[in-house]
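User: structure tokens for Outer membrane lipoprotein carrier protein LolA, please.
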Amino acid sequence: MFDSDGDFATALPAVALVLVFVLGGCLALPSDDPAPSDLEREITAADPPADITATVDVRRTVDGETSQYTEAVWLRADGASRIETTAGGTETVIVDDGDRRWHYDATHDWATRLETDPAAMSYLEGVYAQQARYLERYEITAVEETSLDGRDTYHVTFDLPANETIERSINVLIDDTEYVVPLATSERAPVERAADHVEVWYDRETMFPIKHAVEGDGVTLERTYRNLSIDPGIDDDRFTFDPATDGNGTAVRDVVMPSIDSYDSLEAANRSVPFAVADLPADAVTETIERDEIIRYEFPDENRTQVSVRYRLPNDESLSVSTSDGPRRLAIGGDAVTLGTVTGTIAETDEATELQWACGDRYYSVLVSHAFKDGTALRIGKALSTDC
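Assistant: Done. Predicted tokens:
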């Protein structure tokens, strides 16, 4: 995930981030009634398997509305992956050979190609890193011996520690929807879409999680693995994609990963770009906030530079003000709104309000969490657009 206004995230079909414990190379657990401490030790010591293949059934309920789809997955610890998804009548293939990633929409016959970040964790490594944070913040509250899909399993329940609520969180992208997973706790009220309950069904023989469930504020997510094969040895051809054959000759659009730089001051950020960086106007926000970060993004495929200044509330909700020297290729858009002498667009999502407008050859975006008072985005936009 990149900028808070979703430049890169909106450019690609979202890759479902699998929240599972992939446990390969574990030491033997007691065959009956293992203690929570035994399971914690095995999860902490676990390494990803070399590769896995499976059919994954996904069920998602958000505010009472349920959707379901199926994925065929081939994953390797060296970074190669292939995910074939059928959802809502759309067939999507995502193939990563470790150097480049293809996103192919088979239903609409279009493909996008981008370079893989060489410093990024592999899919499986990233899953493990996330689960290590789960263990740091959750407690194992129950262990039950059961069976699932013909396998003997340990059904393990994780909950937040008693009398604590969520403060700081990480965002988890499932399809095109963001969910919040807690990383820290305090006496403050929980953030929206907070996950406070996790259940995992571990295969007793391999300790692979053949089912994973997350529950929270209006959200239930479930992923169940069928036809699971651990370390089957996957041929390299599975991780190749040729648009001339696999994509029926479809046209290809290349997406180049943006370069990202951080700055400690507005002065330093301004020196790095040929335009004035917009900042949060005085008195536009009544809440107590602090400047969190200043980031410059270079988008080579769009010939565009952007600087975003982000502020945060004590409960980690945020707002950002972005300045760019070119239009976003896939801007969110929204309803027309007048800002002084210019017309912009404003859009509402479940989590935030985004306001966008152009002023000459400069383009601006304000993204405001719903934790702020109504009208905050418009107040900021009107104050910044007075010189247009």
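User: Anything notable?

Assistant: Residues 1-28, 166-193 have pLDDT under 50 and may be disordered.
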